[in-house]
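Memo to structure team: turn this sequence into structure tokens by end of day. - J.P.
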Amino acid sequence: MLRHVLFSLILIPLLAACATSAPQTASPAVSPTAARAKESPAVSGIKVEKVTLYMGFVPNVQFAPFYVALDKGYFKDEGIDLTLDYGMETDLIKLLAAGQAQFVVGSGDQVILARSQGLPIVYVMNWYRKFPVAVFSLGPLTSPQDLKGKKVGIPGQFGATYIGLRGLLYAAKVDEKTVTMPTIGFTQVESLLKQQVDAAVGYSMNEPLQLKQSGQTPAVIEVSQYIDLVANGLMSNEKTVQENPDLIRRVVRASLRGLRDTLAQPDAAFETTLKAIPEAAKTREAQRATLEASLGFWRTDRLGQSDPQAWQTSARFMKDVGLIATEVDPSRAFTNEFIPDKLP
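Reply from structure team:
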């Protein structure tokens, strides 16, 4: 996994790190790399609280909405002295479940996985409205049925790519036994170019873009065209929901203001991101293309709102294919109560 992070810093999604096992115990394994907001003055009428928001993997352009919210002082406006920290999603969920963290950016499938094993994780804000995983090929590929009898390379039997491929086959009623899924690590582009596989699965704003930038014309099938799976958003836990709901409301509001501004002014958001992670300027054109591709997965009529049907679909699919062993009540896995009717 780390190899992928270092190889494609500009194109890293932060979906599920592990689809087949859930965290059981607390772990402090979080990257020491942190980005802290400037000292915030007290906001009139609001006690300033120090909050750490844990993000998956490493700083990258995908987190532009949060960099924008910090830069514009939206967290300060809410009386929050925010620190961004980074780590592996499975480690962060352990902290969250144990009450050692209050907020983690992560994927809906991990919430379902955690709750299937009794962990009190709650998804409090939707970010990615569409699941950003795709199957792509340099040969003919027009529907999931075309994958029958083919070798579809996967990074491994974990994470959003694995869940996405299985979700696609499930929704299209393609028998998984008719598709060979060799593990190729994070070498999707190389494996396709060398014709080692017929197709590969990866992130929509990652490998398909790399192929296009290298002069190829990949055929792409978006998982979201066939099944509506819950993707990334903001997680908290039942303890924080019960004991400090106002804090969640303020963190959500500031985050959504950053998301709104990023969608409205992506060029300005990109420049803000470069201030937060200057090393991204070394691959400026590719970074900007990644942000542009990401915007389409974030847009929705109601920012932050979770779709109950998507949660039901995700939980049913994961149970049907054996990704979780027990039923999960999707209504307890997420809440929309912290989504404001109107942003400042």
